Amino acid sequence: YPTWKRTLARRARESQVKRFCRAQAIQRRLEEIEVTFRELEQQGIKLEKLLRDENESPADQQTQWTNQLLYLVQKKNNLMTEESDLMIAVQELKLEEQQCQLDQKLRSYMNKEETLKTPEDEKAEQEILKQLVEVVNKRNILIQMQEEKRLSEL
User: Fold this and answer.
1) Prediction pTM value
2) What stretch of H or E contains 42?
3) Which secondary-structure segment (H or E) carries 154?
4) Nearest to residue 97, comparing CAs of 60, 48, 51, 132?
């Protein structure tokens, strides 16, 4: 193996490990969000019962419960937004992995000498190139969605 091929292989492995670590972190956070959703749901149910059942409670107490309920709703909405962002990140990771695999396949075809390529090789190379462009376009769409979402939140 020439040095540049070893370097490319090493970089591909490193980026794959980084994607794997990011995917694990995202998965952990999604699980944490799910647990938090359940906890917020339980707290919300308790507060709703208190508000419905305790009509004789002082107005200050009911106002406090209502404020707590609104806080829980706001917290849940924030978590839903974060979950949505994480799902986009998961899609982006999948597309990144797909792009890396297609890139490696394309390199193997492109590294072949033109005189040794069969018509099937050339056809496969063109197909991989087409798929690679599609993946890049999908990633671009995801990035645009994230940017639009970020701008709308501002």
Assistant:
1) 0.78
2) helix 3-53
3) none
4) 132
- The string of DSSP codes covering 55-124 is TTS-HHHHHHHHHHHHHHHHHHHHHHHHHHHHHHHHHHHHHHHHHHHHHHHHHHHHHS-GGG--HHHHHH
Cβ partners under 8 Å of residue 99, min gap 6:
132, 135, 136, 139
CA 41, CA 148: separation in Å to the nearest integer?
30
Axis-axis angle for helices 59-111, 3-53 (nearest 10):
160
Pair of tokens at residue 133:
């462009």
The answer to whether residue 1 scores a pLDDT higher than 70 is no
Give residue limits of the domains in the chain.
3-153
What's the pLDDT tens digit per position in 114-143? Answer: 888 889 999 999 999 999 999 999 999 999
Query: pLDDT at position 19, please?
Result: 93
